Amino acid sequence: MVVTLKYFGQIAEVTQKEEEQIEIKETLISELLELLYSKYDGLKSKDFQIAQNHELVTNETAISGAEIALLPPFAGG
């Protein structure tokens, strides 16, 4: 399955990309994260949330969406 990964803020700085499409075999978000950690070593030290098709998900969520975003912490005011 091909998914579009979107990176924001400090996550985009680590990956040096704002977006990429990758072919994956992984079925859970946690498995996708392991793939990304091996590809982008600096990602391991970053705190972020994951959204799939514009909804926040957990690491144990099955990948079913075409768009996955890695969202750094943000402050509101």
What oligomeric state do these chains adopt? single chain
β-strand percent reads: 25-35%
What is the mean pLDDT? 93
In CATH terms, what is the architecture?
Roll
Helix content range: 10-25%
Topology as H/E string?
EHEHEEE
Radius of gyration: 12 Å
Main sheet properties: 5 strands, mixed
The CATH topology: Ubiquitin-like (UB roll)
What structural category characterises the helix and strand content?
alpha+beta
Stretches with pLDDT under 50, minimum 5 residues: none
Polypeptide structure, described:
With 77 residues, the chain is α+β, with helices and mostly antiparallel strands. The chain has one domain (2-71): Ubiquitin-like (UB roll), CATH 3.10.20.30. It contains two helices and five strands, in the order E-H-E-H-E-E-E. It has helices at 9-15, 29-39; strands at residues 2-7, 19-23, 49-52, 55-57, 67-71. The chain has a five-stranded mixed sheet. The longest helix is centred in the middle third of the chain and has 11 residues, at 29-39. The termini are far apart.
Q: What topology does this entry show?
A:
Elements: E1 2-7, H1 9-15, E2 19-23, H2 29-39, E3 49-52, E4 55-57, E5 67-71
Parallel strand pairs: 1-5
Antiparallel strand pairs: 1-2, 3-4, 3-5
Summarize the structure.
The protein has 77 residues and is an alpha+beta fold. It contains two helices and five strands. It has a five-stranded mixed β-sheet with strand order 2-1-5-3-4.
For the structure shown, list the relevant keywords.
single chain; alpha+beta; Ubiquitin-like (UB roll); 2 helices
